[in-house]
Structure formats: structure tokens, C-alpha cells
From TrEMBL, chain B:
Family note: Belongs to the binding-protein-dependent transport system permease family.
Membrane topology: Multi-pass membrane protein
InterPro entries the UniProt entry points to: MetI-like, MetI-like_sf, PhnE/PtxC
Keyword Transport on entry: yes
Pfam families per the UniProt record, alphabetical: BPD_transp_1
ABC transmembrane type-1 domain segment(s): 77-260
Keyword tags: Cell membrane, Membrane, Transmembrane, Transmembrane helix, Transport
Organism taxonomic ancestry: Bacteria, Bacillati, Actinomycetota, Actinomycetes, Micrococcales
Protein name from the UniProt record: Phosphonate ABC transporter, permease protein PhnE
Membrane-spanning segments: 21-41, 81-103, 129-153, 242-263
Amino acid sequence: MNASSRTTQTAMQPDTNTETIEPQSGRLEIPPQPSLLWPNILTIGVGAIVLAAGAGLQISWADIPQIPANVANYLQLMFASPNWEKLPRALTEMWRSISMAWLGAILCVVVSVPLGMLAARGVGPAWLRAILRGLFAIIRAVPEVIIAIILLTVTGLTPFTGALALGIAGIGTQGKWVYESIESAKEGASEAVRAAGGTTAEVTRWALWPAVAPSIMSFALYRFEINIRTSAVLGLVGAGGIGSMLSNYTNYREWDTVGMLLIVVIVTTMIVDAISGAIRRRIMEGTRIRELARSA
Amino acid sequence: MSASRELVLPPRPRNRGRTALVVLAVVAFTVATCIPAIGGVEIDLASIAKNWRNGADKLIELLQPNFAFFPRTVLPMLETLQMAVVGAVIAALVSVPLTLWAAKPTNPNSTGRFVVRTIINVIRSVPDLVYATILVAMVGVGALPGLLTLILFDLGIIVKLVSEAIDSADHGYMEAGRAAGGSQFQINRATALPQTWSLFTNQWLYTLELNVRISAILGIVGAGGIGRLLDERRGFYAYGDVSVIILEILLVVVLIEFFSNVIRKQLTK
């Protein structure tokens, strides 16, 4: 298809150059339609896989029409009159989850920034890069819950375990983000440092770090946001915090308390996201124009 | 060159005060999260020093996978994959109208936009396993609560990310549609949608990846898939079996990541 369109172009070029635009036969040459054979085969293949997957699932499809009524019923049980009596305890547990998330984020960032930098092309030696990247990939594949379960045997059922699990589980993703952002940083500055005779350490300090520090800090805050959600999950396996409370009351079927807890989780998460998002924007986009004008 | 004209370095920006303030705030927050009296995390390094052998033993057991267990993992793994695929597809279908509804250029009606965005934000702020726990209590144990969890979770991601991408992009083509007298629906159908397919596909592939990861643990709360087996083997302290399952999840996740990267490269070419 490419070749044919190029020939049409070259054929038309002499016309425009000599400025003899004739009506010719009044027909524009339309490029041939691209073949839809492969996209069609692909679509049919994907569709077949999806249908097979759906048919194979052990779901009683007859129950599905009842789901909306069911869900509406439970939503009413949960949110019609939430049980506010346990709110103080819920807030303490939520703060515990936030603490877990924050400590986990700090631990994760402290470990993954140096490791991630070493794993970037142009910083660490090739063998170290391969080892570190493999390590990150393995950590990413192991669910946080599994890491928490292993840690439980060491530190017991405490929020500290949760913080450690969040810290370790985050290293995989965080390290990947660090080396990817270093590798996508513009080459110019590091070339300049190297041309001035800088060692790899100096290149990292004076060219790479200033370039990627804002995005690394932004990622660090983002890790905190992710951890808040995950800390609720860790609570389900016994690491304490709001998740433990949620799973307990769900097991007791005390729906009015569950409703209250969900409201606490949702509101807190949205507030934290909003604050952290605002700080992240400030880090990535810099001072607003209004503030610049004031300082000038 | 005149010698009298010296180069004057601009003064170094002085934000030492603000840096100190930021550091102080971070330290203060960290200290506050470490006070058990107000519900913080008690940092208990002594127990690590005392019990690290337990964890090490467990890791050593995990490092000796019992491959004889592998045949029993095939069917649950298949169920996990089926849940991931079906969940991703249903979420993909539902996400298209919702996304167009939630983005400013494709939906000028601010009330409708606000409603959809609020719902999506609420959906996003509930963690996946919490959905699974509650849905298991609502609709019973099995693949169905898992599937519903995945759909809700995926919708939160796709609608948020794609609608924000549509918001921040430039939309000359939509103006062309409006100039030609199209209704908002026609403009969306004929111009906005073809322009955003690649954004959508990117997120769909990403949610498929995430789904495999998540559905692997959904079983812990009874929502089907390989997580149920994982939880069961862990309950029996059969760590050799657990590590086979983890290795399998690792393999599947890496394969899916590889293929979706290949597809993404094809799409962006």
C-alpha cells in the first residue's frame, strides 16, 4: 500500500512543478483500500476466546437478573441508616491504615530510589541491571497479600507488618518507574557532564538526579495513595487497620456498621487523593503564575 | 569582545526556608504515624531480630516448589484467566459511553459530567478485595463476585484515565464536526471515538494485566480462581505448593505483559 501511494505522489509531482494543472479526465486516483483480512481474523479470534472464556465460567447466569435487586437491597441495609456509634474506633483504625500506608511508602521509596537508579541504563553495570530488574519483576508478580503472609510469621499480626509488606511490595513497581524515568530523561545534560570529565557518580548527581527528582517525588506520593487502598486489603488478612474492621463486620453481617466503614474509607481516600494530587501537580508543574507574579 | 562586560551569574534561587519547611512537615507526619498511642504504627524491630528465622524458614520452603502439585493448579488458573478476560471485556464495553460522558469535550453538560465523575471516584476509592468481600456476602461464593469486582475496578481505572486524556488533548476535529452542524452524539461518534480508540485499547490491555494479578488473590475472600487454592494450600502450610502457584502467576503475568507490549507497539506504530 505504501509503495503504491508513493508512486502516485511521484507521478503527480511534475504537474505541480510545471504549473500545468489540467483537468485530465477529472478523476482522482484513490489509493486502494487497505486489506481488512488480518484485522478481521484477529477480531474473530479475540471474540472466540472471549466467548469461550465466558461460557466456561462457573456462573449461574439465571441468577444475574436478580443481582440489581439484591445489590439495591444490601445498599439499603448498608447506607439507609449507617451505624455511627462505632465512628471513633473506625477513625482510629483509618488513621492506623494511613500510618501503615505512609511508613510503607517511605520505606519503599528509600529502598527503591537507589536500586532503581542502579538499574538504569548508563548508570549501573549490565550484570547488576539484569539482577535488579529481575528482582523488581519478581516482586511485582507476588501479590502484597502473599508478602504480608510471609511477614506475619516474623513480626506477628501488627500494623508494622502491614507497613513492611507495603514497603517491600511497592519496591517492584517503584524501582521500575525510577529506572524508566531516568532512561527517558534527555541525554543532553548527562552528555555535558561526561564531556566535562564527570564520573558516573557525578553524572548521576548533577545531570540525572535534577532531571528526574520531581517525577520521582511525584511517584513517591502516588505510592502513598496506592498504599492507602492496599492497606485496607492487608487488613483483610489480619494486618490491622480499617481493613480488619471491615472484614470482621462483613463476616458478622452487621451491614449498618459496614456501611459506616465504607463511608469512612471512601471519604478518607478521596480527601487524601485530593491533597496528594494537588501536591503532585505542584511538584510537576511548578509554581502557579499568580505566585510567580507575587514573588517578582 | 569588550573586557568590561563581565558575565554575571544570576543569583542562586533561595528556597532553603521552604525546603526546611517541607522536610519538617514530612518528618512531623512520619513521627505522628509512629505513635501507637494515637493509633499509629508501633515500629517493632526487636521482634524482627527475634523471629527472623521463622520468615527465613518459610522463604526456604517457598524456594523448593513442589512441581508434582502443578496439574491441580491448571483448572483454577484457567478460571482466573477466564474471569480476567470476561471482566476486562465487559468493563471495556461499558467504559466507552461512560468515558465519553465523563469527559468535557465530549459532554458539555456539566451536571451529567459531575454525576458520572463522582460515581467513578467513589468506585475507585474502594479497594478491590473490599468489593470482593462484600460481594461474596451479597451474591455468594464463586466466580460471579470476582467478575463483578473486576468490572467495577476496571471501570474506575479506564473511565478516569481515558476521560482525563480526552480532557487534556487538543480537539480541532471536534470543532470541524460542530462546524458541519453535527449533534454532540454525531460528533462523538464520528470524530471523538475514532481518535480515542488507541487510548482505550491501551487502558483495556492494562486492565487485562491488572485483572490477572488481582483475580489471583480474589480467591482469598472466596471470589473464585486460583486464589482459593492459594489460600487453601497456605492454610495447610504446604509452602511448596504455594510457591508453585506463585511461580505460575508470575509466568502468566509476564506472558500477558509481553503480549500486551507487543500489541501496544503495533497500535502506536
